[in-house]
Every structure is written in C-alpha cells, then in structure tokens.
Design brief:
Blueprint lengths: L3 H13 L13 E11 L3 E11 L7 E9 L2 E13 L3 E18 L11 E20 L4 E18 L5 E4 L5 E16 L8 E11 L8 E15 L3 E16 L5 H7 L11 H18 L1
Antiparallel strand pairs: 1-2, 2-3, 3-4, 4-5, 5-6, 6-7, 7-8, 7-9, 9-10, 10-11, 11-12
Length: 292
C-alpha cells in the first residue's frame, strides 16, 4: 500500500496530466510505396523509389527505405522504433550509401548570397550511419536519448549552376565527421506524433569527434520550445522558440593551399577562366570558414 500523502501527490499529478488523444504506442500495421521522378536544376534527373512498412509483425518496429537512380545514385534504410524494453527503451538505426550525389554550394555564407550565386559539388563515396537510443516514460511525456552520427564523402567535381564542369577533383581525400548527441524531451501535448495542443520542450547537446585532422571540433547546445494552440476544430497555431550556441574546441585547417590539395583542386589552373578560378576559390574559402 502507498503512503496516503504519496498517493495524494500521485493522484494530483495524474489529474494535471494532459490527456492523450490516442495510444502512443500503436501496433496498427501500414505500408506505402512511392515512385517519384525528379528533375532538379543543375543536379540532374532520375527516379527515386521510397517505401515504408510500419509496425511489422505486431511490433512497434518500422522500416523505411529508398533507392535513387539517374544522376543521383544510392540507397538507404532506416529501422525505427525498435523496442528493446517495451514502451521504455527504443533503438533507431540508419544506414545509407550514395555513389553519386550533388549539393549546392553558395559562394558566400550568410544572407548576402543571391539565389543563383552557387556552384554544384558532385560528391562520391557518400556513407552515412546513425544510431539513437531513447529512454521513454510516462506515456512518452519524458524522454532521454543519446546517439551518434557518422558521415563521409569525397569531392568528385565542381560544376557551375548550369551543370557545366569547372574542375574535376584529382585525388581528393574522403572527408569524414562524427557527431554525438545527448538530449532531453518533455512532451506535454495531446499526441506525440500529431500534437494539437500543449507544450513541448527539447534540450540537445551535440559535439564532434573528427578523425579528420583537417576539420574542426566543436559542440553546440540547442533549446527548442514549441506551443500548440488549437483554433477551432480543425486548425492549430504552432509557436516555436529555438536557440542554439556553438563553440569551437579545436580549429581545423585554415591554410588555403593545404585545403586546396586536400580537395584535389588547383584553383590557379591557367586553363580556367578568371570567373572559374574565383568559383573554385570560393569553394575552398567555404571549407576554411567551416573549419573555423
């Protein structure tokens, strides 16, 4: 039997708890498959096929996968919501590999760039691995989590915004970065996945541990507070406050020539036009800025 005073406190806490609209650990199965042709300016065309199967075999486990073909090539799989201890200890895993990828590299950091002021970086040997372990209590209203993410890629070429090659990288090293995270999540809403009213607060700390001596190490602290205010029966206002502070613990490489060689580039190549040399230099300057 519980002490009367403790029982009263628990009863009062239960009375104050916001009511969830539905079961927070549903086992209802579902699946979808989505074929999606893509055409992205400067990046290319092709086909993405994605799919998911939720709550496999009367469990909470979900599997999500995708495959890319065309100018982007690769595949990935996520295994989510795996309950090592039912409703309490949850494991998420992610794995992806892209043999061909492309990202936009704006030629200056901040708000001064125009929408067309970018080059395209072709990347290869793109690997991404992630794992997160979550402890969950009180019907998902309190969660504590920790995880790690590891990403790797190699520069293949720089193109202009129209897709024309500026320079091909020769012997670029594979860039790598590893991030770790610890976090706390308080969820005082009516539903974990689809909140309509209530408050949610998340505190996260991220830090890097690069095995690439040329990259920087840092840590960042994030506060994320979100309020959900119902407006009538079908609408909800979402109000969000977010704050992040980042601190560099070890500078990366800032010597232009060293970074240039690391990326397999020669921005002073006389076969390049003056505009192409400047675009190549801007890629290196962005890497240096990232290293600081």
């Amino acid at each position: 039997d519980r002490d009367p005073d403790i029982a009263a406190i628990v009863a009062d806490a239960d009375a104050d708890m916001i009511e969830r609209r539905r079961d927070q650990f549903s086992k209802e199965p579902g699946y979808y498959v989505i074929p999606m042709p893509y055409s992205l300016p400067g990046i290319g065309t092709g086909l993405l096929v994605g799919g998911a199967y939720n709550n496999i075999a009367d469990s909470h486990s979900d599997v999500i996968g995708f495959a890319l073909a065309g100018d982007l090539e690769g595949a990935g799989i996520l295994s989510l919501d795996n309950h090592l201890i039912p409703n309490t200890l949850i494991l998420d895993l992610s794995l992806q590999h892209l043999s061909k990828a492309a990202v936009q590299n704006y030629n200056s950091r901040g708000m001064s760039s125009s929408k067309d002021d970018y080059t395209i970086l072709n990347l290869t040997d793109n690997d991404f691995y992630a794992a997160r372990l979550t402890g969950s209590w009180f019907n998902r209203m309190l969660e504590v989590y920790g995880g790690a993410l590891d990403g790797r890629n190699r520069l293949e070429a720089i193109r202009d915004k129209d897709g024309n090659i500026i320079q091909t990288a020769d012997g670029a090293i594979q860039d790598s970065s590893t991030l770790y995270t610890l976090g706390l999540r308080l969820d005082w809403t009516d539903d974990y996945l689809d909140p309509r009213h209530g408050l949610r607060y998340q505190l996260s700390r991220w830090w890097s541990n690069s095995d690439n001596a040329l990259a920087a190490d840092y840590y960042q602290l994030e506060h994320n507070l979100t309020g959900y205010v119902p407006m009538g029966k079908r609408s909800t206002w979402v109000l969000n406050y977010f704050q992040a502070d980042a601190h560099v613990t070890r500078l990366g490489e800032t010597n232009f020539a060293t970074v240039e060689a690391q990326q397999g580039l020669n921005c002073s190549d006389p076969s390049l036009t003056a505009a192409q040399q400047l675009q190549c230099q801007q890629v290196i300057n962005n890497i240096i800025a990232n290293n600081t």
